[in-house]
Design a protein that fits this description.
This protein has 225 residues and is an alpha+beta fold. It contains three helices and eleven strands; from the N terminus they run H-E-H-E-E-H-E-E-E-E-E-E-E-E. The chain has helices at 17-30, 41-56, 90-110, and strands at 32-35, 61-62, 81-84, 116-124, 130-133, 143-150, 163-167, 170-178, 185-189, 195-197, 204-212.
Length: 225
């Protein structure tokens, strides 16, 4: 497969320091945070273009649930297709660099010892969803903070596909809904915050990511828990 090339070369800006600090403050206070227009418009367009090229080349894989030996394909629970980001493509490389800057800012503020960021594209076809879940089991976490960046330009108000965030102490109580509009960024504590993706009326594109801590056990370095 040839590398997707964005038709317009661009120098995308770094994340705004003040907006990163405000995001971290909200994360500390509420356990989750959301910022509209957090990502540069041209960058989200380029990422969307790279995702479309991957999809056109048949490079997306149906997603599953669980990690390691517990991984299984369950379309009745999760209906997206994914592709892990790599630094081999211009927009993906810039996005990973931006998340490294955010990781460093989080570590300076919260001393969490985050050492890595992993992320994948997620393409939800019309009607696909992801049932309510948490991203990491309590006490087994190497995923500490989860993130989602949205790539959907001109998303309509009635498009569906929102991410619903629930209260940790009461998983029936909604804390908020995030509309999947391009440039919007959300992050939350992986162990604490139940969430789900509602069915959408249009194909839905995003990047799911996790800031991780080394959780080596025995002779296994950073096992996939």
């Amino acid at each position: 497969m040839t590398s997707p090339v964005h038709p317009v070369a661009a120098a995308w800006p770094a994340l705004d320091t003040q907006r990163m600090e405000a995001l971290i403050d909200d994360l500390v206070e509420h356990g989750w945070a959301v910022a509209e227009d957090f990502l540069d418009h041209d960058l989200t367009h380029a990422l969307s273009h790279e995702l479309q090229a991957l999809e056109d080349n048949g490079a997306l894989a149906e997603a599953g649930i669980g990690r390691g030996r517990e991984y299984q394909h369950r379309p009745d629970i999760r209906g997206d297709s994914i592709r892990w980001l790599t630094p081999d493509h211009p927009a993906q490389r810039h996005y990973l660099m931006s998340m490294a800057a955010l990781r460093d800012a989080i570590n300076r503020s919260l001393f969490l010892g985050l050492f890595e960021f992993e992320a994948h594209f997620a393409r939800y076809p019309i009607g696909a969803f992801y049932q309510r879940h948490v991203d990491s089991f309590r006490g087994r976490a190497n995923r500490i903070i989860s993130s989602v960046s949205y790539l959907n330009a001109d998303w309509p108000d009635d498009g569906g596909g929102e991410m619903v965030v629930y209260a940790p102490e009461d998983e029936t109580r909604e804390l908020g809904r995030v509309v999947p509009r391009a440039g919007t960024f959300v992050c939350f504590l992986s162990e604490e915050m139940p969430h789900e993706v509602l069915p959408a009326r249009l194909p839905r594109a995003s990047i799911a990511g996790w800031f991780r801590r080394n959780s080596s056990l025995g002779n296994l370095i950073d096992p996939a828990l």
